[in-house]
Amino acid sequence: MLWPFELHRSYHRRNDIHARFGGQQQGGISTPANAPGIFIFTGHGAGHVGYQDVFEADGSFRYTGQGQLGDMQMISGNRAICDHVQNGKDLLLFQQTKKGGPVRFEGLYVCGGWEMEQQPDMNGQPRQAIVFTLVPQNGLSIEAEDLAAEAPTDLPLAELKRRALKAALAPTAASSRVALANVRARSKAVRDYVLARAAGLCEACRSPAPFLTSSGQPYLEAHHIHKLSDGGPDHPASVAALCPNCHRQAHFGADQAILNNKLLERVRAPFEKASEAKMGREKNAI
C-alpha cells in the first residue's frame, strides 16, 4: 500500500484519515483493522491529560503510550506500536497544533524500544508510563556511498536470514540511545539479507545489477514495499532489492501499485511456504 500523505501537510483527521482507512477516531493511537498502518496523534492538549511527548535533538520522538489513569500496560494500542514491525504495520505520526484543528503529517517512524517513566496521570497522580522511542525512517536510509565502502559479507544466506528475522522481533525495554542504535542495526541486518537473497539480480526485472561497487558488490537498492518514500517496517518479507531504475519506478511509475503488489508477493513467498511447512510438521506431530 502507498500512503497518500505528504510530509508536513495538514489533514482533517476524520475526513482524510479515518473515513478512508478506518481506525478509532478518538485518542492518540488508532489501529485500523484493514490498513497496514497505525496512526499516532500528538500535540494539542496532550500534556493536560498526562502525556508528555517530545521531539529530541537527534530526530527521535519520545511518545507516551495509551492509558490515562494508573500504571500503563503493554496492551491494546501500546502493544500494537511495540509489535508493528513483525506485524507489517507502518507507524504514521500526526501532530495537532490547536484544539479541533487539522493534524499535520510528521512522517513515518519505527519503534526502537521503550522505557517505563514516572509521569502524572490525568488526575495528577504519579504513575508508571510507557514511553516509546520512535525513530524517523527517513534517517535510516543507507547512502550509496556507505554501501560502496562496505566489504561484502561472507556469511551464508541462511545465517543472514536468521539475523534479519531476529532483528525484526518486537523491541524490548531500552533507553532512547540504545533504541536508536537498535533500529539502525535492525535496518542493516535486514538490508544485508535482502541484498544477499537477490544474488546480484533485481527482484523486479530480474536483470543483473547495473554495476559493481568499489568493494566488489553488485549495486542494488533496498526498497521498502509498503510506501511511497523509503523506509518502512524493517522485515525481510517487506523489503526487496531493486536496480535503481526499478526502484524509481516502484516509487514514481504510473504502474507503481501493480509493481509493488507483485514485489510483495515475490518476497513473501518463501516466508509463507516456510510457515505452511512448519504448520504441517506440527499437525503431523499431534
TrEMBL record:
Stretches assigned to the HNH nuclease domain: 189-248
Domain of life: Bacteria
Gene3D superfamilies, per the entry: 1.10.30.50
Coiled-coil region: none
InterPro entries according to UniProt: HNH, HNH_nuc, SRA_ScoMcrA
SMART domains: HNHc (SM00507)
A family per Pfam: HNH
Record's protein name: HNH nuclease domain-containing protein
Lineage: Bacteria, Pseudomonadati, Pseudomonadota, Alphaproteobacteria, Acetobacterales
